[in-house]
């Protein structure tokens, strides 16, 4: 009566309960399980929306904003969902106007695939009550920015995405694709995986994929990380059945590892003979071979791979009495810039593989072309850096054309054989001498 007198009216058609499960603002609240989840109708709507984008090749900025907004809302109850929106947001941010279109790249498709495959799996894993005293932090809008919570979520996601190196993330994505494909073929739930189902995956890697034992361990690691990232117990640690199975696999196929083919002086001479050292591209390839060989470096440490990989620039080259010195601030083994690495490119007078002479020739060519300190040292053209993929492919093509059956990888250069009775490289105050393929510090 009081409500009617004050002109408040109740729409009884919209009243639910009392019940342990009810839908409020599109979210299913379950007080029995104390969880929040999306109802089946919402899941079906999201699945249809995601499939629409899966069939697209391009999308406008407005369409991407609509998708990201929907997924951002869903990630309130889909555990781990925010982590798989970053690359969608990055793609959206490349567009200026709402009508501009972007090509939906492989990174976008990978995030989309996660939502399609795991949205149902992680639906309903968000608890109503958190065991932490503060579950969210919010404030009013201010001149410095928007909601504090949204900013912290975004920054935390960015830091989390940088927890692994780009090369590690690429490897994990490839291994995860293998695992998800197996689960889909066998109609197995990927997360959480049962001991019996996980045993089948190990048998698949060993029997059908014919992987070495060390490779099998690497492929299983991504499953472990997948469980831990979602607050679940990994299926290997403290699991007697899985450990016993792996012991049997190791006993059957052995634990031998085959190293990368080592670069030899003869290979370098064959490569040099096939190159036109008057061309910037060919000379850059040759110098890259010598830097990797004499510097005991993976080419991935100084060749372009992606936006997170530093490019070797001319300003990093210094001159010393007996050659040149290259300063690296970040490599695969120095990922956190805790120190700098000085690699000496020695002058070996009269030797056909003298690295200092080749580097001097490349620097002279850059001077003729008008390059400055910020210019990449190793180039495919005047405006394009030499990429790691093109370098490895080009070198292997040369070796194949001259009848050399060996195939090189990035590790081949850092473990190559010495061109002289010994290969000597200065690292700070120590000297690294490589004799018969073995490195020592003196």
From TrEMBL:
Please provide, alphabetically and separated by semicolons, the GO molecular function terms listed in this UniProt record: DNA binding
| This protein's record includes keyword Transmembrane | yes
Q: What is this protein called?
A: Core-binding (CB) domain-containing protein
Transmembrane annotation, as ranges: 280-297
Claim: 4Fe-4S is one of the keywords in the record: no
Q: Which InterPro entries match?
A: CB (IPR044068), DNA/RNA_pol_sf (IPR043502), DNA_brk_join_enz (IPR011010), Hepadnavirus_pol/RT (IPR052055), Integrase_recombinase_N (IPR010998)
Q: Which PANTHER family match?
A: REVERSE TRANSCRIPTASE DOMAIN-CONTAINING PROTEIN
């Amino acid at each position: 009566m009081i409500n009617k007198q004050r002109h408040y009216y109740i729409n009884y058609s919209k009243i639910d309960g009392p019940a342990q499960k009810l839908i409020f603002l599109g979210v299913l609240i379950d007080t029995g399980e104390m969880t929040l989840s999306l109802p089946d109708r919402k899941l079906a709507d999201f699945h249809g929306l995601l499939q629409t984008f899966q069939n697209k090749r391009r999308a406008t900025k407005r369409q991407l904003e609509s998708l990201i907004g929907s997924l951002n809302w869903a990630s309130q109850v889909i555990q781990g969902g925010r982590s798989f929106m970053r690359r969608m947001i990055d793609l959206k941010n490349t567009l200026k106007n709402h009508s501009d279109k972007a090509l939906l790249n492989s990174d976008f498709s990978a995030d989309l695939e996660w939502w399609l495959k795991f949205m149902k799996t992680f639906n309903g894993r968000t608890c109503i009550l958190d065991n932490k005293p503060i579950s969210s932090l919010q404030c009013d809008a201010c001149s410095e920015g928007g909601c504090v919570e949204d900013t912290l979520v975004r920054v935390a996601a960015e830091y989390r995405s940088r927890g692994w190196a780009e090369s590690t993330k690429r490897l994990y994505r490839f291994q995860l694709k293998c695992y998800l494909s197996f689960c889909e073929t066998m109609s197995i739930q990927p997360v959480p995986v049962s001991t019996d189902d996980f045993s089948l995956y190990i048998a698949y890697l060993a029997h059908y994929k014919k992987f070495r034992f060390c490779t099998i361990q690497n492929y299983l690691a991504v499953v472990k990380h997948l469980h831990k990232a979602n607050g679940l117990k990994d299926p290997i640690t403290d699991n007697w059945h899985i450990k016993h199975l792996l012991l049997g696999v190791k006993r059957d196929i052995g634990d031998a590892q085959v190293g990368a083919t080592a670069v030899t002086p003869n290979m370098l001479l064959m490569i040099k003979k096939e190159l036109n050292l008057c061309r910037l591209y060919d000379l850059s390839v040759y110098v890259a071979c010598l830097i990797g060989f004499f510097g005991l470096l993976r080419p991935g440490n100084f060749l372009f791979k992606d936006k997170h990989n530093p490019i070797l620039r001319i300003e990093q080259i210094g001159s010393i009495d007996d050659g040149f010195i290259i300063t690296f601030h970040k490599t695969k083994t120095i990922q956190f810039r805790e120190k700098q690495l000085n690699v000496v490119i020695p002058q070996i007078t009269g030797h056909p593989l003298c690295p200092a002479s080749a580097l001097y020739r490349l620097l002279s060519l850059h001077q003729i072309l008008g390059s400055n300190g910020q210019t990449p040292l190793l180039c495919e053209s005047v405006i394009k850096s030499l990429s790691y993929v093109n370098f490895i492919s080009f070198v292997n093509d040369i070796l194949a054309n001259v009848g050399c059956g060996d195939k090189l990888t990035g590790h081949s250069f850092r473990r190559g054989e010495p061109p002289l009775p010994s290969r000597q490289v200065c690292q700070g105050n120590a000297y690294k001498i490589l004799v018969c393929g073995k490195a020592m510090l003196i």
